[in-house]
Specification:
Rossmann fold; seven-stranded mixed sheet; 6 helices; 7 strands; globular; binds magnesium ion
Length: 207
């Protein structure tokens, strides 16, 4: 964690706020479509979204080659859902939202690309953490993770106090989930989960 390339732009802790770490690729922006298009062009293949049924679907060497190209131009990614900036802003008003990625992006280009998509520091999120050490995400100081990486399911089995909202994709759809992992199918699922829980607590408190 100490060696992580951490950019803490603002961190404030307040009571009753949850610290939420949102993944970038496959949760905020549509990494997979851009990657797939570059891959199909380069290797003259016709891979479709539904084909990517494993986390390590692509051959390693090819993956690394295309990954470098894809991450060099973060401004070419589009949002998974056009309303994500609004959803993030709502979450960040109530809780503490960070973006946590292992992605190998140039920092300034990444921040700039997010801004162009309407995702700004201090408004939609408070800190951008780019970790190049491979530290398991659940070792970071967050309560809830929103991520599409099925390897985090095992991390959550070890750390049962951590909570994962697993963003549904073909590469994680067959995973069996423990109690502290919930599958979400879109961003409105995510928002509903947060605010239904709050509403329930509020109602129960009044009984
Ligand atoms: Mg991801």
């Amino acid at each position: 964690m100490k060696e992580a390339d951490v950019i803490v732009l603002k961190t404030i802790r307040e009571e009753n706020q949850m610290r939420i770490a949102i993944d970038l690729d496959g949760v905020i922006w549509d990494f997979q479509s851009r990657f797939m298009n570059l891959y199909n062009q380069e290797y003259n293949e016709n891979i479709q979204y539904e084909d990517m049924i494993r986390w390590d679907f692509y051959p390693k060497k090819r993956w690394e080659h295309i990954y470098k190209r894809a991450t060099k131009q973060p401004y070419k990614f589009s949002l998974i859902d056009i309303a994500i900036p609004i959803y993030m802003r709502i979450l960040n008003l109530r809780h503490k939202v960070s973006i946590l990625t292992h992605g190998n992006y140039p920092v300034l280009a990444l921040k700039d690309s997010l801004e162009k998509l309407g995702i700004e520091v201090g408004r939609e999120y408070n800190e951008l953490i780019i970790d190049h050490t491979g530290t398991p995400k659940t070792e970071f100081d967050f309560d809830i993770f929103i991520d599409d990486n099925p390897n985090m399911i095992n991390e959550c089995m070890i750390r049962s106090q951590k909570f994962l909202l697993l963003y549904n994709h073909p590469w994680n759809k067959n995973s069996v989930l423990p109690k502290n992992v919930i599958r979400v199918y879109n961003w409105s699922d995510i928002i509903c989960l947060f605010f239904t829980k709050e509403l329930n607590e509020h109602t129960e408190g009044k009984k």
